[in-house]
Design brief:
The protein is mostly helical. It has eleven helices and two strands, in the order H-H-H-H-E-E-H-H-H-H-H-H-H. Strand 1 and strand 2 form a beta hairpin. Helix content is about 65%, strand content about 5%. It has a two-stranded antiparallel sheet.
Length: about 240
């Protein structure tokens, strides 16, 4: 009996991707700074890469735009968002309001399993630093904050933190000082230690200090990228 013909890998059925998978692939690429702010996300190219219709790509881009990760322009298409300095400051203001509340809820619902998950995550961060894996460091640093929100058990807060962490990631790419470290290596660990002791006040203070350090490492006092022509040509 002759063998049935083998299916060619990468055929339409095998290349079909779910909307969630495509969304996550694009999301992680932006989070890891593989897709930079301002990058054009062409529907046709993405449809070809993922083996889906342009209509499905439009659905994914609309979802990303709803979360302010992507900007949609009529007749021009979709681009990775470029937060302004004002938007960057708004993001940090929102995080200062939300993250202390997240920590309070986490402490109130704390279990050994939750602490173990947080400690395991920080170990992944440390391993990425030892390996010098910059993309993993960036991704894991942001995911620490979303994990804290998820473990706190409030889905609305978790969604908000996911969006705010992505906006922070885009902000860091645009405004990071060349020699600055956005996340200090021990700060996530000290926050976990305070949570493990159920010390709400200490955990909240450490988180606010952490956010201050991140924002303080950024160049948010520049004049929206506009060159001072007077000083350049008449100095």
């Amino acid at each position: 009996m002759p063998e049935s013909p083998r299916k060619t890998p990468g055929g339409p059925a095998e290349r079909e991707k779910s909307l969630d998978e495509i969304y996550e692939r694009i999301y992680v690429a932006i989070l890891e700074h593989r897709l930079h702010p301002g990058t054009k996300l062409g529907e046709e190219r993405l449809a070809d890469i993922f083996g889906v219709s342009r209509a499905r790509i439009r659905e994914v881009l609309a979802r990303l735009a709803h979360e302010q990760i992507v900007e949609l322009f009529p007749q021009r298409g979709a681009y990775v968002a470029k937060p302004t300095i004002e938007q960057a400051r708004d993001t940090f203001e929102a995080r200062r309001l939300i993250e202390p509340a997240v920590l309070r809820r986490l402490v109130d619902t704390l279990t050994p399993e939750k602490i173990n998950r947080l400690r395991s995550h920080v170990e992944l961060e440390a391993d990425a630093r030892r390996r010098g894996d910059k993309r993993a460091i960036i991704r894991l640093s942001g995911e620490f904050h979303t994990l804290v929100a998820e473990l706190a058990g409030n889905s609305a807060l978790a969604r908000s933190m996911r969006e705010l962490c992505m906006l922070t990631c885009l902000t860091i790419f645009l405004y990071d000082a060349p020699t600055a470290k956005s996340c200090r290596e021990d700060e996530h660990q000290t926050i976990i230690d305070a949570v493990a002791r159920r010390d709400r006040a200490r955990a909240e203070k450490l988180m606010l200090d952490h956010l201050d350090h991140i924002e303080g490492s950024l160049q948010l006092d520049q004049n929206n990228g506009e060159a001072d022509l007077e000083s350049i040509f008449r100095g």
